[in-house]
Amino acid sequence: MSPQRASAPASARGAAVARGIGIGLVNTLLRPRVLGTWRMPSSGPLILAGNHTHNVDGPILVGTSPRPVHFLVKKEAFAGPLDPFLRAIGQIEVDRSGPDRTAIGSALEVLEGGGVLGIFPEGTRGAGDFAELRAGLAYFAVRSGAPVLPVAVLGSGRPGRAVPSLPPLRARIDVVFGEPFAAGDGSGRRTRTALDAATVRIQEHLAAHLADARRATGR
Description:
Blueprint: H1 12-29, E1 30-35, E2 46-50, H2 57-64, E3 70-74, H3 82-88, E4 92-94, H4 101-112, E5 116-119, H5 136-144, E6 148-154, E7 171-177, H6 192-217
Parallel strand pairs: 1-7, 2-5, 2-6, 3-4, 3-5
Antiparallel strand pairs: 6-7
Helix pairs in contact: 1-2, 5-6
């Protein structure tokens, strides 16, 4: 087993800088249409759960979210000059090969501090339909008590491509924020049964929001 890396608090100031960079990039390179931002609580801990079809989904959400976001980012992205950059802008490295106690601790610190934690609950790029969810989102939601806010990014990936290409310059991307909801059952239990039930509850909410977003945007 590899040794756990040292934990470092995710920088709130860095996440605010990331949001500024994201706003500039997204509005320069794409034509985002953002719906439902008023649904995001203006303060307090929050988990932003997005679908994932392309690597640009993370920067798009960072640049369109009304609040700075600390995303859990796969450790493979922390290479070369991107490593210090991602850490400086408040993003959290996570090893997806097994339970990553350092990443878990950093993510919970974000929520305990009243910040926004960003997660792609499908774990990796795929169809972006929330058909398969990892249990990590349920754990963070139940453990912290933070509400989950679903968000759908539509138009960033092209179905049927093994290696999705970047969206064309000035392409229309739709970002639709949903209603926040509680993932737990109110008991505060963190048993396997409670986490499994929370995962099912989350999947139902996210899938319903994605269907609503597609109807609203015609995607």
